[in-house]
Each structure stands twice: as structure tokens, then as C-alpha cells.
Specification:
Elements (H helix, E strand, L loop, with lengths): L5 H16 L70 E8 L11 H10 L2 E8 L3 H10 L8 E4 L8 H8 L4 H4 L8 H4 L3 H7 L9 E4 L5 E6 H6 L8 H11 L17 H7 L6 E3 L5 E3 L4 H15 L12 H9 L5 E5 L3 H7 L6 E3 L12 E2 L4 E7 L4 H14 L6 H8 L6 E3 L5 E3 L29 H14 L3 E2 L9 H23 L4 H30 L1
Parallel strand pairs: 1-2, 1-3, 10-14
Antiparallel strand pairs: 3-11, 4-11, 5-8, 5-9, 6-7, 12-13
Helix pairs in contact: 1-12, 1-13, 10-11, 11-17, 17-18
């Protein structure tokens, strides 16, 4: 089998970090200042920004209104211009975001950095925060003086920061006058962000305080080594019994069909969705919220995973492997599957070239009931602006508008690949291909994408068959995605106690599947979860849901 380069592992691990960070509700150390009423119940709600799709490159595979992404099997030959004038005013702006890459070279030595500054018409002081340090850094920022805030701040969705909404309401600019309704049309690329992303970002106290980072409908996905699973008997329309049988057959020697990493609860999201359990929260027709933990299908999924573990289909270190190590094991064929965000495909297909063919798994049926698929939060965090005079806020929004340029534009190409001849060259079909400098100076290490980004599309350079396969897969699974009904809603108890409650349940689920605790411990944990805040969260979410309906 061909070798795996260190760069390949690091690039894939970076995307794995995105997926691994998103589900847990973790709490920062600071209790930030600010005590306003951040709920939306009883408030006059700002209208969502008007959605006006941008006209760029026509896709080869059409999107659907339900959420199947536009697919591009070829790179556009004629790039459009989405920003007619330089957005900046020559001033210096301070920005801060999470990063999953390595620290960037300094601006004076970074040609990519300077090229983006020139295009934006500003000088940029960029603070990049490694994902592992995000909580601690944000605690310091939120506790600091208002004047010390960066101009643009990425509020990463991987963590629930204590009193996050209060901090935003008190310290950030209310963007309602600039973005609500048709006001957003002054920023065409921001108007190109679908309404679903704004809804899942949510309002605070009835107002708009941020710009969402749009993500597709499909979320946590079971990525398969297609050859391994096909050889073991995988078929379209498989049942839970079929899945278990295939996993058992594909496991032999030191090869395991199922891989898992720390915090994934043995890929619990994928299996609970296949059992059609709520993903976080469900809401019924009466407006009552029900948590996944209280649903019998959630318990059935845990019992099913316990059987998979008893079959020895999971890697024996499934409770201790890091995400980077799991990626390495997947690429070298030690494990045949892993749970990751759907967006991991952008590096998974290139990095597995010559090693294996990755494929997103279709959900299996349970008792003849078609399985579900995890739906992602349509907003992967959001961007807030420091309070400032009207003219500066408008300038900062123009900068974000540039960064949100859609696929098929010259602006998108600059942000994604840098300068032609400096950071990339073109293949025969016109597709940008990064050179050695482009592997160091790029949007991963200087992550402008976490400040603003246009709607994502399906595109893998030089791999039209991969784009076609994913588009076909989405057509099958988007109709059965299961959305967390709490997305975009505010619950003070969830913010204050959600991390502790989630950790208690995650620890119990992992212990049960690993065989360290009996199933009865799961039932006891659910009772504790409800009495210690779960039922109160349900009531608060119901009130928010009613206010937003």
C-alpha cells in the first residue's frame, strides 16, 4: 500500500478536528459581563435578511430546495467578479477566529496574507486561536475591556460559552439596521447566504448580531473504506442486521471495520440517527420539546452499538484514539470507517488517492423502518463586529461581503488558492493546483473562511466521479435528515448547565457501550439528567420556539 505523508495526515486531521469539535457542549472558564434579557420570547423579532441568490458559475449538478448541494464536476472556465470595488478604506482592522491549521507566517513574509489585504483594501492584524485553546482565549476576551475587542470576532459553534448571548448583546454591534430584511441587499454576497443559516444562528433579544457561516444540510457522516465494505457484502438498502454482519466479516486480524475517536461515543450520532432517535431535541405538534436521551430509540441505538462492540467490530482503542490518529488508521486501512463531518470530503478524497476510495454510508433500516441521517446546524458559528460608528460598520460588512464571495468567482479563487503563479498553477482543465508555497500559505493556516464564507458547493478538483457520487448520496439522505429542533433557540439553562449535563450522558453512554457499565446505568443517568436541568431546558426551548414560530 502506498505510504501516507505527514502533510496528508495533518490536513485530514484538521478537517477531522472541525467535525470532532462541533457536537460537544463545552464551557469556558469565564463568567463574562453583561446581564440583559437575551431570550426572544415576548420580543419584536427582526425580520430575517432577504435571500437573493448570487449569479456565478452554473452548476453541473443542480441543487434542490430541500438542501442537496450544487455540484461542480469541472472547474468554471470563466470566473465572475462578485465585488465591483475595493471594500476597505485603508485602515487597520483586527480580526480573530478559531483555526484548525498550523500558525501562519507573519504578514511581512506571507504573500497570501498581503494579497488578501490588497484585495480588501485594509491592513489586517489576525489573531488565530487553535481549536484546543479557543475556550480559554475567549474567556479572556469576553472578560476584557470593550475597547480591547477585535473589530471582527468569529464565535465558533464548537463550544457553548457561558453567557455568550449576554456578551454579544452587550459588546457587539446590533446589525439589525444593516442586515434585516432588504437592508442586506447592500451586501450582495451576504444576501446570498440562505435563510436556513440565519435561522440556525438565531436572534438574541429579537435582534441580529452576527453573520452566519453557512453549512450544508448533511452533518455527521459515517465515512467508509468502500472497497473493504463492498468486499464484506455491503448492499444498497441494508438493514441493521446486514450492517452488523458486514462489520463482523470485515473485521479480522488487526483490521477493524469500525473506527471511533475520543468523544464520539462509538459514533453514536450516526447510529442514533439510523434508529431515528432525535438528534439533540425534537419538538412535537403541540410545541413540547423532547430530548434524545428520553427517547426509547436512543436507548435501542446504544444497545445496538453495545452488540457491535461485543462482536469486536470496533477498534479496541475506540475510547482513547485521537481524531488525527483515527484518520491515520483509516487511511492506512487499519479501520474501515469513521464518523466525521460531511465537509471532511474536501480533503478526504484527495488524501486517500491511491490508498482507498472513501464513500459516505447510507443509513441502514431498523425493523424495516428506513434509517435517518444526522442534519447539521446550518450555521457553523457566526461573526460579530465590535461596536463602532456607522461608516466603519458598513466598511467591515463590505469586507465580510468580499470574504463571502461564491464559488465560481475571482474573489473565491483568490481566497481559496491565493495568487496564480505564486501559490498555484493550473491543470490542463483549468483547475487550480497548489504548489509548495500554496501548501504553506493558504486559507487553512490563515482562516479567512471562519470570518465569512459563501454557500458551500460540492467540488473536488480532478475528481468528477466523487462529486457525482456525493450528489447522488445527498439526494437519498437529505429527505431523511433529522434536525435538532433547538438550533437557533436560546436556553439560559442549556448555556449554564448544558456542558455538565452533556458530559454526564456522554460518559455514561461510552461506559455502557464499552462494557464497563450495565444498561441500567443509562436509565439512571437519564433520570438525573432530567432532574438536574434537562426538563427545565425543554420548557425554555418550548417558549423560544413559540416566540420564533
Amino acid at each position: 500500500m502506498p505510504g501516507i505523508s505527514r502533510r496528508t495526515v495533518l490536513r485530514t486531521a484538521a478537517v477531522a478536528g472541525v467535525a470532532a469539535a462541533a457536537p460537544p457542549l463545552l464551557t469556558a472558564c469565564s463568567d463574562s459581563s453583561g446581564g440583559g434579557d437575551v431570550s426572544n420570547a415576548g420580543k419584536k423579532l427582526a425580520p430575517w435578511p432577504q435571500y437573493k441568490p448570487a449569479t456565478a458559475a452554473k452548476p453541473d449538478l443542480a441543487p434542490t430546495e430541500t438542501g442537496v448541494q450544487a455540484g461542480y464536476t469541472h472547474y468554471p472556465s470563466d470566473l465572475a467578479t462578485s465585488v465591483k470595488r475595493t471594500p476597505g478604506d485603508g485602515s487597520t482592522i483586527k480580526v480573530m477566529s478559531v483555526t484548525f491549521g498550523t500558525p501562519p507566517k507573519a504578514a511581512t513574509q506571507n504573500q497570501y496574507w498581503r494579497a488578501v489585504e490588497k484585495a480588501l483594501g485594509v491592513k489586517i492584524e489576525y489573531t488565530v486561536i487553535p481549536q484546543a485553546d479557543y475556550q480559554k482565549k475567549m474567556a479572556t476576551v469576553m472578560a476584557g475591556e470593550a475597547d480591547s475587542l477585535p473589530d471582527i470576532i468569529n464565535m465558533f459553534s464548537g463550544y457553548v460559552l457561558p453567557r455568550e448571548q449576554q456578551f454579544v448583546q452587550k459588546r457587539a454591534q446590533d446589525l439589525t439596521p444593516y442586515l434585516s430584511g432588504d437592508a442586506i441587499l447592500d451586501y450582495p454576497n451576504l444576501a446570498n447566504i440562505p435563510t436556513a443559516a440565519w435561522r440556525d444562528m438565531g436572534r438574541i433579544g429579537g435582534q441580529l448580531y452576527g453573520v452566519p457561516l453557512e453549512r450544508p444540510v448533511t452533518g455527521s457522516t459515517l465515512w467508509l473504506n468502500q472497497g473493504m465494505f463492498t468486499d464484506a457484502g455491503m448492499t444498497d438498502g441494508w438493514s441493521s442486521q446486514d450492517f452488523a454482519a458486514v462489520a463482523k466479516k470485515a473485521t479480522h486480524g488487526k483490521t477493524y471495520a469500525l473506527g471511533a475517536a475520543v468523544g464520539s461515543n462509538f459514533c453514536q450520532g450516526v447510529h442514533s440517527a439510523a434508529h431515528n432517535a432525535p438528534q439533540g431535541w425534537d419538538v412535537d405538534k403541540s410545541g413540547t420539546f423532547h430530548a434524545n436521551y428520553t427517547d426509547k430509540r436512543f436507548r435501542q441505538a446504544v444497545a445496538y452499538q453495545l452488540q457491535l462492540r461485543k462482536d469486536r467490530s470496533y477498534h479496541p482503542e475506540a475510547t482513547s484514539l485521537s481524531s488525527p490518529n483515527l484518520n491515520t488508521l483509516f487511511l492506512n486501512g487499519t479501520v474501515g470507517s469513521m464518523q466525521n463531518g460531511f465537509g471532511a470530503y474536501t480533503v478526504l478524497y484527495p488524501d486517500s488517492e491511491g490508498l482507498l476510495t472513501p464513500a459516505p454510508a447510507l443509513p441502514y433500516t431498523v425493523d424495516e423502518t428506513p434509517g435517518g441521517q444526522v442534519a447539521a446546524r446550518r450555521s457553523f458559528g457566526y461573526t460579530i463586529l465590535k461596536k463602532a460608528k456607522k461608516e466603519r460598520i458598513q466598511m467591515l460588512l463590505r469586507v465580510l461581503d468580499y470574504l463571502a464571495s461564491p464559488f465560481g468567482t475571482k474573489e473565491w479563487e483568490l481566497l481559496q488558492f491565493g495568487v496564480e503563479g505564486t501559490h498555484f498553477d493550473r491543470a490542463k482543465d483549468g483547475t487550480p493546483q497548489r504548489n509548495k508555497l500554496g501548501e504553506v500559505e493558504n486559507i487553512t493556516n490563515l482562516p479567512f473562511r471562519y470570518l465569512a464564507e459563501g454557500p458551500q458547493v460540492l467540488f473536488v478538483p480532478g475528481r468528477p466521479e466523487a462529486v457525482q457520487a456525493m450528489h447522488t448520496w445527498q439526494q437519498k439522505v437529505v429527505p431523511v435528515t433529522i434536525r435538532d429542533a433547538s438550533f437557533g433557540l436560546v436556553s439560559s439553562t442549556l448555556v449554564a448547565q448544558g456542558a455538565t449535563l452533556r458530559a454526564m450522558m456522554d460518559d455514561t453512554v461510552t461506559a455502557v457501550i464499552a462494557g464497563r457499565s450495565p444498561m441500567s446505568d443509562l436509565d439512571d443517568a437519564v433520570k438525573k439528567w432530567r432532574s438536574r436541568g434537562g426538563d427545565k431546558i425543554a420548557d425554555e426551548l418550548a417558549k423560544e420556539h413559540a416566540a420564533n414560530s
